[in-house]
Amino acid sequence: MIKHIVFWRLNERAYGNDKQTNARILKEKLLTMKSKVDGLLKIEVGFDFSNEKDSFDVVLYSEFSSKEALYQYQIHP
Q1: What is the pLDDT of residue 53?
Q2: Mean pLDDT of the 4-14 span
Q3: What is the pTM of this model?
Q4: Which secondary structure element, helix H or strand E, spans residue 7, and what is its range?
Q5: Distance CA 49, CA 42 (A)
Q6: What is the mean pLDDT of the chain?
Q7: In 3D, which of 58, 62, 60, 59 has the Cα closest to residue 23?
Q8: Rounded distance, CA 70 to CA 68, Å?
Q9: What's the structural domain count of the chain?
Q10: Residue 52 is part of a domain; what is its CATH number?
């Protein structure tokens, strides 16, 4: 099993939206990957609630059945 973790810091405004809106959009798009990528076993997306200076806004945690499955996820459009 391969575990893949990604952290993002978002701009206060981007694409005409505030940070919270973009975080929700990002979460929705990431969660749709579960049914689209073979070998993606688990996917979770969380938001920062601490608002600490060095914290990230969004975190992705995912598990894959193999390195090949992770690769297929990374090149998925």
Answers
A1: 87
A2: 97
A3: 0.86
A4: strand 2-8
A5: 22
A6: 95
A7: 58
A8: 5
A9: 1
A10: 3.30.70.100
SS3 category, 2: strand
Enumerate the β-bridge partners of residue 62: 4, 43
What is the signed CA dihedral for 73, 27, 58, 9, rounded to 10 degrees?
80
Contact 37, 76 (CB under 8 A): yes
Helix (H, G, I), strand (E, B) or coil at 27: helix
Report the pLDDT value the prediction gives residue 65, as an integer from 0 to 100: 97
Say yes or no to pLDDT of 76 above 90: no
Count of CA atoms in the C-beta half-sphere (13 A) of 34: 12
- Dig out the tokens for 71 from the structure: 């690769």
Domain that holds residue 53: 2-75
